Every structure is written in structure tokens, then in C-alpha cells.
Give the backbone structure.
Amino acid sequence: MPLSNPIFPLIAQAARQSGVRAFVIGGYVRDFFLERPCKDIDIVVEGSGIDLAEKVAVLLHTPVHTFKQFGTAMLRHHDMEVEFVGARRESYRANSRKPIVEDGTLVDDQLRRDFTVNALAFSLQEEDWGCLIDPFGGVKDLQNGLLRTPLDPDTTYSDDPLRMVRAVRFSAQLGFTIVPESLVSIQRNAPRLEIVSMERISDELHKILMSPRPSYGFRLLDQCELLPLILPQISALKGVATMEGRGHKEIFSHTLQVVENISQKSVDLWLRWAALLHDMGKPATKHWDPKIGWSFHGHDFVGSKMVPALFKHLKLPLNEKMKFVQKMVLLHLRPISLVQDEVSDSAVRRLLFDAGDDIDALMLLCEADITSKNEQTAKRHLENFIKVRKKLIEVEEKDAIRNFQPPISGDLIMQKYGLSPCQEVGQIKERIKNAILDGRIRNDYQEAYALMEQIVKEMGIV
Ligand code: CTP
């Protein structure tokens, strides 16, 4: 039953009392046919959306939030968010985000929606309750898995250029195909994306990353010529340089494979971001040496330094999530590089210390990074990886380094020797930390204290 939620008869009652026609439209109707869960209900009214929302809010005894400048209102009912908008005819002037808006009919409103599959509506009128209004063949497009705009795609995309990114997002989320004339139109209109706020674009990027097929989404962004405008750092990973007939691994495809691999293991959005960005430092560090071939020395460090600027550009929060991504990019080579020779306890302790609580996420990323097509190489990397994983568990059980807090604090050193904050205090702390990580002393207060006394003597402080 499409209109089984008890809120619909209430909305219908309020609309009838106000003498306006109201319809359920957009994602709710689409997701009803796709049998997907949906937490948002969009109501379009031939009249004022705010007036109707206020009447429904009275019936529900619930507060209503109005956004007068947009002519919309929103209220919550149980776990549903219900948004009301007046049917509009809307157009945008070139280079302006401010639309010219006039009142319109349901069909006017459907026409100015992004895709036929998002322009479906159910009637809330008594006489045709629950009747589907589908003027552009949206249900057929749903059945065929097609994303098509109700108007000429050039008009729909230039009305709101974010829709070009939404097309890619829906494609990745639903497994739908963008119809060819729409794809060509996106390529043509891609530069119009510059009038869209980065916050809106980033929201779509999150949804692409969280979709069942993130790598397909990023390939499509590239095919649509949107990728260089949104993520030039990732677009720069494309292509293979050749010297003396030797090319390096294609970094863009590899990156997308890593994103795909991590997505099968984790639903953590920020770990998926880390997978997307992990090799971002490669173009800047690419180097050809006739003796050793291609190298990307230091790309982990360079890539991690690029993260804050990229987050700033995408208007993503510069908070602990960013630090987490930065840390993943910086450390992504560490677990596998441990096994070049013997896996020493000391190297494992250092890795545990540097990764802290994020060690499990780092190990997932490191495993996802094994994409070699050569079966022998992939097998060897995987075996090494398993070795490191085993060693990590052993060392962690023994030494509890993961949440390592130095047993001797700077305050204690200053108090005991009557020092004010100075370089020496830092040096003492660092030497104690290194002694623990190298396994020369145990992670224990007494042993660290004894070492402190010895270091202080050596340094001539007492
Ligand atoms: N819409 C549009 N153009 C946009 C954004 C939204 O035409 N740039 C219309 C579509 O009809 C869409 C509806 O507004 O279905 C609601 O938008 P939104 O909540 O962003 O998307 P949903 O389709 O509900 O999908 P989701 O909840 O997955 O974002």
C-alpha cells in the first residue's frame, strides 16, 4: 500500500479544509516502487506549502519549521521528516543561483524536477486517493533503470547544475544508467558546476562513496567530465607515464579498486575517503630512475600533507575525521613495509604506537591496497600481510602499546628536577618513549623512572 502511513489522511484532511490539492512526490514515490526504505516525505501543494504544513502541525500537535525565503516548511512525525512546498514554476538566470519563482500546477512542478523517476506523484485527494501521476514515463524508466530528465537535459541541468552530480549519485546508488543524451548534456554543462556550493557537492560525494558501487560512481564522474572540477587531485591520478618502454601502475584504476575493496569490508565513510585519497601524493613524487624504474618515494607523506587543503576545498569539516584520513594516508604503507625483512617487535610496537586505536582501520586499508594482477605478487603480499597481523596481535597482548601513554610525564620531570618547560624535558620524554618502543625497557613506571634518572645524569642536569 503506497499511502499506508497514517500521516497521509491527516495531510489530505488539512488540504481539503484549505481548499488546496496536495500530492506526495519525489523520493518517497520512487522508493515505494523500488521497495527501498525512505525516511523523507515530500509533499507538493497547489497553494502555499507553509500554510498547509502549519495546519498539519496543529492536527499533529507538533512544531513546524518554516523557511520563508524558499516557501518550504518541515515537520517531523515519528522517524519521518515531512517537507511541504508549493507547486512552482522556476527558472534560473545564467550565472545566478537565485531562481525566478512563480506559483504553478502539479505538472509545472513535476516538469522542473531533476529526473522522471523523481517526478512521480501520488494524489492525496479523496476522489482519486493514491492515484499515480506520471506524465513523463517515470515508472517505465524505473523498470528500465534509466535516469532521464523531464525537460531537455540542458534546461534541467542548467536550472540546478548539482543535478549532474546527482545523476551520477543515483546511478551509483540504484545501478541506473544515465540516458545518452543526458550524459552528453552533462559533459557539455559540466563547467556550470562552479555556481554550486561545495557543501552540496560534498554531500553527493559522501553518498557516492557510501553507495553499493562507489568505484563505478567515480568512473562515471570522470566520464561526465565532472571529476577534474570536483577532485582535481584524483583526476590527476589518471594515465601512465612511460620511459624506456616501462610504464608504472595506472594509479586511478588502482585507487578505485582499493575503494571497492575497502567498501566490501567497511561501512566507515571516512575510511572510504582515505582509500580514495591514499595515493594522492603520487603524481607529485613520481620519479624515473633508469636503474630502479618508476618510484613514488614519500608519496604517503606528501599525500597526507595534501589532505587539509582538499578538505578545505570540499568544505568538509577540519576536525578529527580529517585527522583520521590524514593519518591513514600517512601510514598506509607501514604495515606492509614492515615485512621487507624480519618483522621485528620494535617496528611493530612503533606502528601500534603511531596508529593507536586506528590500527584496525589501517590494516583494512593496507589489505585493500593489495591489488596486484600478478597472482604470485598478490599472494606474497597477502602472506606478508597475514604475518604482520599475527605479529601485531602478539605484541599488543604482550606490551599493550595501542593506547600507550608515556609512564613518565613532562610535569613529573619538571617537578622532580625543578625545571621549567624546556627542550631537555622533551628530549628525556622522547628517549624514554624510544626505549619502550625498542623493547629496551618494559612499558612500566618503575623501569621508566629508573631510566629517567640515568638519562638526567648523563645529560648533566643533576
Ligand atoms: N529535486 C530536484 N533537484 C534537486 C534536488 C531535488 O528536482 N537538485 C527534487 C527531486 O524530485 C527529488 C526531491 O526534490 O526527488 C527530493 O530531493 P532529495 O530529498 O534531495 O532527494 P530524494 O529524491 O528524496 O533522494 P535522497 O533522499 O536519496 O537524497
Remarks:
- Residues 26-27, 40, 42, 113-114, 118-119, 160, 162-163, 166 surround cytidine-5'-triphosphate (CB under 6 Å).
- The radius of gyration is 29 Å.
